Amino acid sequence: MGRRTHAVPAATAAALLLAVLHLHAAVAADPPFSCGAASAAPYCDRKLPIERRAADLVSKLSLEEKISQLGDESPAVARLGVPAYKWWSEALHGVAWSKGMHLDGPLRAATSFPQVILTAASFNPHLWYRIGQVIGTEARGVYNNGQAEGLTFWAPNINVFRDPRWGRGQETPGEDPTMTGKYAAVFVRGVQGYAISGAINSSDLEASACCKHFTAYDLENWKGVTRFAFDAKVTEQDLADTYNPPFKSCVEDGGASGIMCSYNRVNGVPTCADHNLLSKTARGDWSFNGYITSDCDAVAIIHDVQGYAKAPEDAVADVLKAGMDVNCGGYIQTHGVSAYQQGKITGEDIDRALRNLFAIRMRLGLFNGNPKYNRYGNIRADQVCKKEHQDLALQAAQDGIVLLKNDAGALPLSKSKVSSVAVIGPNGNNASLLLGNYFGPPCISVTPFQALQGYVKDATFVQGCNAAVCNVSNIGEAVHAASSADYVVLFMGLDQNQEREEVDRLELGLPGMQESLVNKVADAAKKPVILVLLCGGPVDVTFAKNNPKIGAIVWAGYPGQAGGIAIAQVLFGEHNPGGRLPVTWYPKEFTAVPMTDMRMRADPSTGYPGRTYRFYKGKTVYNFGYGLSYSKYSHRFASEGTKPPSMSGIEGLKATASAAGTVSYDVEEMGAEACDRLRFPAVVRVQNHGPMDGRHPVLLFLRWPNATDGRPASQLIGFQSVHLRADEAAHVEFEVSPCKHFSRAAEDGRKVIDQGSHFVKVGDDEFELSFMA
């Protein structure tokens, strides 16, 4: 608080980026593996199907050995040459500290990408996929260097960011299920070593990704309601079109090899004990091929907190019979034998789980002899923190940053015209803050203030507040610095004490005295100030939006190891911002809505406003998809490429009518052949009118004539990111599938297409299609 730092000799962004803080040393040790050259056991025979190999190994284990393998820390079975394994590793936005990954040996860092919510703001699936690829590669590099005991990573977090107060919303791709599902699929494919699209080789994993938290999990601790005890009351309609689609995409499109069931109950049933969810839906309907883990200590909670199970052995039986395979924690290892002895679980319940678990380890190549001599054995320590990976971390930060306000061309700044700058705020010179949560030691560490010193020799930093909580401040010193400088950049927002796992917010404004600090600094400054917000969840900054003394507002999320550099490049026009908000920013009054109300759709009769841009009926601070640029862009549909099919004449369909009189048709009854015939291309001509080159997300929406029968107001159906030079135009093609994109969820969860008009929209341009059977 009140700390003031003067400029040190400036360093260029390029030099900072190459200043890798860790050293690659000699290989520490061989990685753990099974099936050396002398082994002739069937489970070591690479010519056999993995399912048969896993079954053979399981058949050789005693009951006690079997139960011992059902926890996240699985001990060695020395007599069979099976090493210990740790299932719990983290890689949300880069390889992170965790039980299974040890970044405390010769390798002491890994590339730290922006927190997911900022990366999502790029609306760039190719970027998301490349980040997944880097994580998979660096994970193998750490493993091959003998610094890991597992290759199963419990990421991505693909719960829909339903409520702006949720402490873990920062970990997700945002509030839209289509976007979240796309992120899940391409990220998982990157991590696991698959191509970005097309067929999947499910028998060969570079690393294993896990989709979490299944399902309807988005509350930590709100007014005494904890995630451990919360019973989420969710309709079939909301499950079908909001909560479950990202997981469906993660499995079907991404080929995920792991799923994590969540702490909460859904309609009275703990998700880890829900056979309908784990076995019928995931394994049955979606053909999931992998393992299912509990969240940590979730099995114990079923008995100890929720009281759903009457005895510990009942909790063990509930989860194994539901289809869960491994418990993060030791509860099954402690109570599994007694559950078997009491007849509450069978040998097959145990063996099924073990076959799934050992199959994953075999797909990772850990039962194929020394991994260093197999497919991914050439990934060495020098692949971790390599320059290309760090460049990608910088690009991800650049492309995610969102310009929210830019009055009178306040940005970009001119390096030649800025003689001095005051950097003010608790988030301006804190490197660890840039990393968000679930992070590892980054390859480099550059704060925004340090990066700005490379642009302005006379740069001064004043913290202004003790931290984001801002309950102790020194506004006088900040005001003095602001009045003495040519320009002022404020770095405000949140931190991990305000939003994180186990911590939800109660308010949506800037914490403590931050708003007062911003206003008084703006009043004292010579020119309109620039406000940079570092936060995961949205904040109500209406005061700043409407204050003419605040010339620009920039949202930079938690931008990762290169975030300070990226922010400076955006402020000085070396990068043209193109990010778009992946969540709605609500006003402070939204906190009157109970966080425990899981309904997505508005209820006018009670004043319930609904949630997310798809259903919310209320005022916003900023809308989903909002973002400015230093360039002007235009969009229109290209008639020569957009070819909608005939939407009528499909024979044999049975129409049903809702209570409101809406006629609709069941998508499942239409069948795959009819749905394929309805697919069509929509081609958008997008032009950058200058004055700067830039990357621009093109968002394609569907809207209905009205929002009756629970229809969304609008729905994102496609998005692409395109780089355009100033004055350049390009055509962007989307494949539109009416069965997928025009359908809505009925109250019973069925997907139906309504008879009548549907509008496909990009920017201000749209065209109409009418569906008639």
Which helices and strands occur, and which strands form pairs?
Blueprint (H helix, E strand, L loop, with lengths): L3 E3 L6 H5 L32 H10 L3 H6 L4 E2 L10 E2 L29 H5 L4 H20 L7 E2 L23 H16 L15 E7 L6 E2 L2 E2 L4 E2 L3 H8 L1 H8 L5 E4 L3 E2 L2 E2 L4 H11 L5 E4 L3 H7 L7 H11 L8 H11 L5 H17 L23 H14 L1 E5 L13 E5 L23 H6 L4 E5 L12 H10 L2 E7 L20 H11 L4 E6 L7 H4 L4 E6 L7 H9 L40 H4 L17 E5 L17 E3 L5 E4 H12 L1 E9 L5 E10 L10 E11 L4 E8 L1 H4 L2 E2 L5 E4 L1 E7 L2 E7 L2
Parallel strand pairs: 4-5, 5-9, 8-10, 9-12, 14-15, 14-16, 16-17, 17-18
Antiparallel strand pairs: 1-15, 2-3, 6-7, 10-11, 13-18, 19-22, 20-21, 21-27, 22-25, 23-24, 23-28, 26-27, 28-29
Helix pairs in contact: 2-13, 5-6, 5-14, 6-8, 10-11, 11-12, 14-19, 16-17
In CATH, what is the class of the largest domain? Answer: Alpha Beta
List the domain count as a whole number.
3
Can you count the beta strands? Answer: 29
User: In DSSP terms, counting alpha (H) and pi (I) runs of 4 or more, how many helices?
Assistant: 22
N- to C-terminal distance: 68 Å
- Find the CATH superfamily of the largest domain: Glycoside hydrolase, family 3, N-terminal domain
CATH architecture of the largest domain: Alpha-Beta Barrel
Helix content: 25-40%
- Strand-residue fraction? 15-25%
The main pleated sheet reads as:
7 strands, mixed
Q: At the third CATH level, what is the topology name of the largest domain?
A: TIM Barrel
3D shape = globular
Average per-residue pLDDT, rounded, comes to 94
Instruction: Quickly give the structural class.
Output: alpha/beta
